[in-house]
Amino acid sequence: MALSGLITDWGGVLTVGLREAVDQWADQEGIRPEDYVAVMRQWFGRDYGIEAAYNPVHALEKGELEVPQFEEHLAQALSQYVGRPVPAAGLVSRMLSRFRHAPDMMALVRRAKERGIRTGLLSNSWGNTYPDDLFDGMFDVVVISGEVGMRKPDAEIFEHTLREMRLPASECVFIDDLLPNVRAAADIGLVALHHTDYATTAAELDVLFATTLSE
């Protein structure tokens, strides 16, 4: 069946990679990146899926927790590893400020839309605002986790996005930088790509859509 839809993540696909952004933020805050990783493992488990009974990240992404409340959770957890108080106010915005745009990937999505491919954004939000000025005319569908009360990698948010796209899973490509999200998308029938760099993703999309999107 011919492919007619392209759905992409935001952070780590249409921006610089997660590791790069977090490392820059941690350096600015005087926090070791491994201390941040330790907090995430405390909440998510060393192996993805073996998680704490209450994960503040899940609550934030589903819109069940306000950003200031999440910042208190994160600052308190980081302080235990850092050995000093970590300021909570503005913690998330300082982190997200390091997620610079990836103009090559954004241009690719625009080319896809110009060629008649339906485009969608599917993003787990940390209460952040998205650059509407850059998104103008870029997506047919925008699904933000905190606005719909669902999050990746749960199947329900992929199914919701497909309904908004008005396309079956088998006709859509999904791009994400996190493997659990990629695997979850594949499980419900999407053509799922693990994004590591522009050149690799663009080459794969050229083949999948049988057109040159990698200009």
Summarize it.
α2 (33-44) packs across α4. It is built from eleven helices and five strands.
Q: Could you please describe the fold and organization of this structure?
A:
By secondary structure, this protein is an alpha/beta fold. It has 2 domains: 5-16 and 100-209, 3-Layer(aba) Sandwich (Rossmann fold), CATH 3.40.50.1000; 18-96, DNA polymerase, domain 1, CATH 1.10.150. 48% of the residues lie in helices and 11% in strands. The chain has 11 helices and 5 strands, in the order E-H-H-H-H-H-H-E-H-E-H-H-E-H-E-H. The protein has a 5-stranded parallel β-sheet, sandwiched between helices. 31% of the residues are buried.
Q: According to CATH, what is the class of the largest domain? A: Alpha Beta
Radius of gyration: 18 Å
Biggest β-sheet: strands ordered side by side in the sheet: 3-2-1-4-5
Count of all domains: 2
Uncertain stretches: none
Shape: globular
Proportion of helical residues: 40-55%
Determine the structural class based on helices, strands and strand pairing. alpha/beta
**What oligomeric assembly is this protein in?**
single chain
Number of strands: 5
CATH fold-type name of the largest domain: Rossmann fold
Query: Which second-level CATH architecture of the largest domain applies?
Result: 3-Layer(aba) Sandwich
Per DSSP, the total helix count is 11
Portion in strands: 5-15%
CATH superfamily of the largest domain: HAD superfamily/HAD-like
- List the helices and strands in order: EHHHHHHEHEHHEHEH
Averaged pLDDT: 92
Could you give the distance between the termini? 25 Å
The biggest beta sheet reads: 5 strands, parallel
